[in-house]
């Protein structure tokens, strides 16, 4: 039996299963520690959605309401290897979209920019997956994902569901909210400065 739901108990076995997927899917320099994730969920700052089939956790997503914006950030989304290619990921995405709508919010997320890095086809495939569900890419804007271990920020694109054209003022407000609320970064820090430069060059 397939089921999707929000998980709030950070001490249960399902939480451990979700965190195993999280650790396997994302490199250490991109993911906050499990202790931080626990604190965020327990405080209500972040919400954990999981997908289970036959009592096995196979999908996880972490979502963060960006205060002072009209968006919920899809912070992390991952599928365990045995569940990939089965179509369950699409069902999970639809559940997340409906859940976001039930919160009277819009979905915003970051994807790896296909013009950077070596896994171009994988990056394009991920973008096409989101586009199947009506996602829109904010054109000509590079968002810089902070490196939690002090390395160079990674070049990303910003997408929304439903498709929303953000003007320059709102785009700055949204990105500033991400940097401040999730990374405790301000306008003087490198990722935000690089982002502003990309706007000046390409927006």
UniProtKB/TrEMBL annotation:
PROSITE patterns in UniProt: GNAT
Residue ranges of every copy of the N-acetyltransferase domain listed in the record: 2-164
Family annotation (Gene3D superfamilies): 3.40.630.30
Superkingdom in the source lineage: Bacteria
InterPro entries found in the cross-reference section: Acyl_CoA_acyltransferase, GNAT_dom
Molecular function as annotated in GO: acyltransferase activity, transferring groups other than amino-acyl groups
Protein known as: GNAT family N-acetyltransferase
Organism encoding this protein: Solitalea agri
């Amino acid at each position: 039996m397939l089921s999707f739901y929000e998980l709030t108990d950070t001490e249960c076995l399902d939480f451990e299963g979700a965190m195993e997927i999280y650790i396997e899917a994302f490199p250490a320099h991109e993911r906050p520690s499990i202790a931080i994730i626990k604190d965020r969920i327990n405080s209500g700052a972040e919400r954990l959605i999981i997908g289970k089939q036959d009592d096995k956790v196979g999908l996880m997503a972490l979502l963060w309401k960006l205060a002072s914006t009209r968006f919920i950030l899809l912070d992390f989304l991952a599928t365990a290897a045995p569940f990939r290619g089965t179509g369950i990921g699409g069902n999970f995405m639809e559940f997340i979209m409906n859940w976001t709508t039930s919160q009277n919010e819009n979905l915003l997320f970051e994807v790896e920019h296909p013009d950077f890095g070596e896994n171009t086809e994988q990056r394009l495939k991920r973008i096409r997956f989101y586009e199947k569900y009506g996602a829109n890419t904010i054109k000509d804007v590079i968002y810089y994902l902070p490196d939690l271990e002090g390395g160079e920020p990674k070049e990303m694109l910003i997408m929304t569901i439903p498709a929303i054209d953000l003007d320059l003022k709102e785009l700055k407000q949204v990105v500033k909210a991400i940097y401040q609320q999730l990374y405790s970064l301000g306008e003087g820090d490198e990722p935000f400065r690089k982002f502003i430069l990309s706007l000046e060059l390409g927006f």
